[in-house]
Amino acid sequence: MSRPRIVIVGAGFAGYRTARTLSRLTRHQADITLLNPTDYFLYLPLLPQVAAGILEPRRVTVSLSGSLPHVRLVLGEADGIDLDEHTVHYTGPEGGEGTLSFDRLVLAAGSVNKLLPVPGVAEHAHGFRGLPEALYLRDHVTRQVELAAAADDREECAARCTFVVVGAGYTGTEVAAHGAMYTDAQVRKHPMRTGMRPRWMLLDVAPRVLPEMDERLSRTADRVLRQRGVDVRMGTSVKEATHDGVVLTDGTSVDTRTLVWCVGVRPDPLVESLGLPVERGRLLVDPHLQVPGRPELFACGDVAAVPDLTQPGQFTPMTAQHAWRHGKVCAQNVAASLGIGERRPYRHRDLGFVVDLGGAKAAANPLGLPMSGPAAGAVTRGYHLAAMPGNRVRVAADWLLDAVLPRQAVQLGLVRSWSVPLESSSPEVARVAGRPERAAKQTATTGTAATTGKDSGAEPAKSRPGGEPGKSSPGAEPAKNQPGGERAKNQPGGEPAKNQPGGEPAKNQPHSPRAAGKPRRAGEGAGTGPARGSGKARKTSRASGGGRAAAPSGPTRSAGPPDDPGPEPPADQPPPGPDIAPGPVKRTDGRRAEGDS
C-alpha cells in the first residue's frame, strides 16, 4: 500500500512549522513535499536589521533542506490548484512547469504587499516583505547619503537624504527607527552641508504609532522615534508619488528619492482563485484549520481566516505569532486525518508583543507587563533568539559585533530597483532579466488612498491602483508609464525617447484581457474555454493574466545610474518589455536620471 502524499504550499512561519511537525509525527509513514519559491525559511521580524546593516542576510534565513531532512523540497510557485484531481500546478525558478499530486494539501502561501490606489506609488515605492527588498533598501539608502554628501546643490542634497516610510505599524516603525540610526552613523563618515542631516518621516492615517498594539507600547515607540529626529506625522498619508517626491494628504510636498511602503499585507491572491468562501481574502476554515466540505484541504497562516475561540465572532490576526502556532496545530490535525493522533482545535491567547527600536531601545509587553528602555531591549532580543528555528549563535555574534565595532555602510549593487517592484506577487524572489516569469497576480486593493497601518488585508481591486485592469498583463497593451512603452501623459518629461529598453510596443499585438472571475490554468492561451463549472471546486490559476509571458508584468522604475545599466538579458531572450528595465530610462526634458529613486 502506497504512503499518503502531503503537499505543503509555502514555507513561511505556518508552512515551515507544519512541515517540521508533520515530519516528526508521521515518522516516514507519509511522503511530505514542501513547495516554496526559495530554499530557505525567512525570519521576517529581523528583516529591518538586515536593511540597517546590523545582520547579514543569511543570519535571518534557515535552510529548508538542512533543517527538514525528511521533507522533499520542490522549488517553485503554485499557480494552479485542481481540488477535483488533487493536483497542484507550479512554475519553477527557471520557468519549467510541474505538477504535484496530493492526498492532503496544506495551503500556507502567506501574504503579499497591500497596494492602495495612490497615484505613482506602484512606480516609485518599494515594499518590505522579502530579503531582496531589504537588500535593495540598504543599498539605496547608502547610495542616497553618499550622493547627498557629494551634491553641489543644496536642494538635491536635502531630497536625497529625506526618507519617507508609509505605515506606522510593526514593520514601518522598526524600519524608521533602525533607518534613522543607520543614516546618522553614515553621515559621521560622510559629512553633508552645514546644518543638514538625514531626515526620516513616518506617516500613517492612524491616530498613533503602532495602532494595533497596546497604547503604552505606542507611546514608548513614539517617544524613541522623536528623540532620534524622526518626523512622525499621524493622520497623514501619501496622496501622490512622483520621481522627485511625494504629495501628502495635508497638501504638503516633500522632495525625496525614497518611499518605503509598509502599510500592511494582504493574503496571497492564490486563495481567491480557489472559488471557495473567503473572509477579506482569507480562506474560511473551521477551528481545526480544515476547509468545510473539503476534508483533504487545510489552510493556516495569513491565508486562513481561523476562528478565534478566545474572542467569539472574530478571526485570529495576521501575525507571525499566530502563524507559527497555526502550523503546529495544522500538522497535528493533518496527521489525525491519516489516523495518527487526535484532532484538536486552535486556541491561543497572545502573550504580548515586542518591537525592536534599535540599539538598546525597544518596546515590549511580555505577559501584559509594559516595558521600555534597555530592559525591553534585552527581552526583545531574547525573544527573537528563542523564536528563531536556527542561526541563534550567528545572530547573537552579529549583535555583539555591532555593539563594539562601527557599522559597515557599503552598497553591493546586487539588487536593482526594477528587480523588486512594489506590485510583485512574490516579494521573496527578485526578478531577473531574461528569466521566464509567470504572469503577475492581482495585488492591488480597493479602498481610499489613506493607509490603515494595520496588517489586515483588504478587498482586491481589479488589478491596478485606481481599480482599472492592469494594462501590462500578458495579452494587453503595456502600461504607458513603463520602460518600453509610452509614458503616462500626465507625467513630467513628456514622451520618452524611442530607444528605451524594449522599444515601442508592437501596435498589431492582439488584446485579449481575461474575463473577470474566470481564472484559467497557468499556460492556457487567451482563447481557451472557461474553467470548470461553478458548482465544483475548479482548476484555478494564480496568474492574473491569460497564459505565461516571456517577461513579467507590472510597473517598474528607472533601473539605475547611467553608468550601471545592470544585468543584460541572455542573447536568446526577447528584448525586455514593460517589466524588465536593465538600464536607466532616458529623459527628454534635459535632466539626468537620478539613480534608483
Radius of gyration: 23 Å
Largest sheet: 5 strands, parallel
The backbone outline, from C-alpha atoms, is: globular
Q: What low-confidence regions span 5 or more consecutive residues with pLDDT below 50?
A: 437-597
Chart the SSEs and their pairings.
Blueprint: E1 5-9, H1 13-26, E2 31-36, E3 40-42, H2 47-51, E4 61-63, H3 64-67, E5 72-75, E6 77-82, E7 87-91, E8 97-101, E9 104-107, E10 111-113, H4 121-124, H5 131-150, H6 154-160, E11 162-166, H7 170-187, E12 199-204, H8 215-227, E13 231-234, E14 238-241, E15 245-248, E16 253-255, E17 258-261, E18 265-267, E19 278-279, E20 282-284, E21 297-299, E22 304-305, H9 320-337, E23 354-356, E24 362-364, E25 371-372, H10 373-387, H11 392-404
Helix pairs in contact: 1-9, 5-6, 5-7
Report on this structure:
The chain has 597 residues and is of the alpha/beta class. 22% of the residues lie in helices and 16% in strands. The chain contains 11 helices and 25 strands. The strands form 8 sheets. Strands 5-2-1-9-21 form a 5-stranded parallel sheet, covered by helices on one side. The protein has a 4-stranded parallel sheet with strand order 13-12-11-17. Helix 5 packs antiparallel against helix 6 (154-160) and helix 5 (131-150) runs parallel beside helix 7 (170-187). The radius of gyration is 23 Å and the shape is globular. The protein starts with a strand and ends in a 193-residue tail after the last helix.
